[in-house]
């Protein structure tokens, strides 16, 4: 059990909710990004998601897209995000989880990425553009290096798919609250509580809601 899984399991045993922060790597600049991560940890966040900037996102809303575009314009890459994570892992004890699209990882090489992620102290990976059926190509590379592969469950998932995904996900199950992109809403969509209940019934792994919260 890696740090992410230990952290989320301990939180569940304590009977409390977890707070997960999302920050775009290198935004607004390297120093400010590091300070923001430290501030989030000091402020009580239990897990930090580090978004790897990508030019063609499919899941990001306008706020994250704007941050990613600004970071890309500054020259932020997957490799520089990994270097930043390594420096952060020496400063904070909060688990760091990368959220990336698959293209930068394929360009770097999946094995090379997995090695670099382990050396950088990354505890988990979320790939929103990789389906559950395709995840078998990457999951073992991470597992052998002690990195959790965090799966996503969508509102459109039927019970059989929920069970398959929930039983495989490590660290936590990422419950996508909307069939759309990220971004704040005035209220949670109808059916989120019901979906969360179905996922919780399928696994003992903690379930965290994202998108539109």
**Number of continuous helical runs:** 9
Strand content: 5-15%
Q: What is the strand arrangement across the widest sheet?
A: 1-2-3-4-5
Stretches where pLDDT falls below 50 for ≥5 residues?
none
Mean pLDDT: 91
Brief synopsis:
The protein is α/β, with parallel strands linked by helices. The chain has helices at 3-13, 30-42, 62-73, 78-89, 102-108, 110-119, 139-143, 159-168, 192-202, and strands at 20-24, 47-51, 96-99, 124-126, 148-150, 152-153, 173-176, 207-210. Helices cover 43% and strands 14% of the residues.
How would you characterize the overall build of this protein?
This protein is α/β, with parallel strands linked by helices and 213 residues long. It is built from nine helices and eight strands. It has helices at residues 3-13, 30-42, 62-73, 78-89, 102-108, 110-119, 139-143, 159-168, 192-202; strands at 20-24, 47-51, 96-99, 124-126, 148-150, 152-153, 173-176, 207-210. It has a five-stranded parallel sheet with strand order 1-2-3-4-5. Helix 8 (159-168) packs across helix 9 (192-202). The longest helix has 13 residues, at 30-42.
Name some characteristics of this structure:
213 residues, five-stranded parallel β-sheet, globular
